[in-house]
Design goal:
With 210 residues, the chain is α/β, with parallel strands linked by helices. The protein has nine helices and five strands. Strands 2-1-3-4-5 form a five-stranded parallel beta sheet, with helices on both faces. Strand 4, helix 4 and strand 5 form a beta-alpha-beta unit. Helix 2 packs parallel to helix 3, helix 6 crosses helix 9 and helix 7 packs across helix 8. It is elongated, with a radius of gyration of 18 Å. The termini are far apart. About 3% of the residues have low confidence.
Length: 210
């Protein structure tokens, strides 16, 4: 039995392209939606195996739709399909229960791999953006705020990191040198026990800092 997919994107050319891309692959496109509201309606009606969900849509972002879809159709696996390699988006996608996060520039084989892995309930596909943060939500998830003595400045820096800003942009925003920003970032990663900025963004989202 083939994998049933719902495509949610506000650009008709993207929806058509994906439908053509998935033809003759054993993956059946059972429906399309052009907005978050329509995505939820179609998800409830069709109960697809996998939902490809764009982030930027006319009636609010896809991540808001993701929360509602996960609540109403928990059996469906949601894969975020985005133009944006943004740590905050990725972090919010993980926090909201997305199965994977794939960039629109990905190859056909990678997209098929992501869909098949999602439908099978497997961990994020090796080329999916979530792979690099697959364990980040578990890492120190139980840490309480009072167990992580971030200074006020470190908290400010972490918020900027979670928004995807570079060290130079953070320095300009906070009026400190790039070297000082780097020092703060290293201290933050060590204190919250993560290894990179995207995992730090995930942690910040979980703590409600962004």
């Amino acid at each position: 039995m083939g994998i049933r997919v719902l495509i949610c994107d506000d650009h008709e050319v993207i929806r058509s392209g994906l439908t053509a891309l998935l033809s003759e692959t054993g993956i059946e496109v059972v429906g399309e939606a052009a907005s978050g509201k329509e995505a939820l309606k179609q998800a409830i009606k069709l109960k697809p195996d996998v939902i490809l969900l764009d982030i930027r849509m006319p009636d609010g972002d896809g991540l808001q739709a993701l929360d509602k879809i996960r609540a109403k159709v928990p059996s469906a696996k949601v894969v975020i399909l985005s133009t944006y390699d943004n740590p905050t988006y990725i972090a919010r996608a993980v926090a909201s229960g997305a199965t994977d996060y794939v960039l629109k520039g990905s190859s056909r084989d990678d997209l098929l791999g992501v869909i098949k892995a999602a439908a099978a309930g497997e961990s994020p596909y090796h080329s999916g953006e979530l792979k690099r943060v697959a364990n980040a939500m578990k890492v120190k998830q139980a840490i309480e705020d009072d167990e992580v003595p971030l200074t006020q400045r470190e908290t400010q820096v972490l918020k900027h990191v979670a928004l995807g800003l570079s060290n130079k942009e953070i320095g300009r925003s906070l009026g400190i040198s790039v070297e000082t920003v780097k020092e703060h970032v290293q201290n933050i990663l060590r204190k919250i026990a993560v290894t990179d900025r995207t995992q730090a963004a995930v942690w910040a989202v979980r703590k409600g800092l962004v």
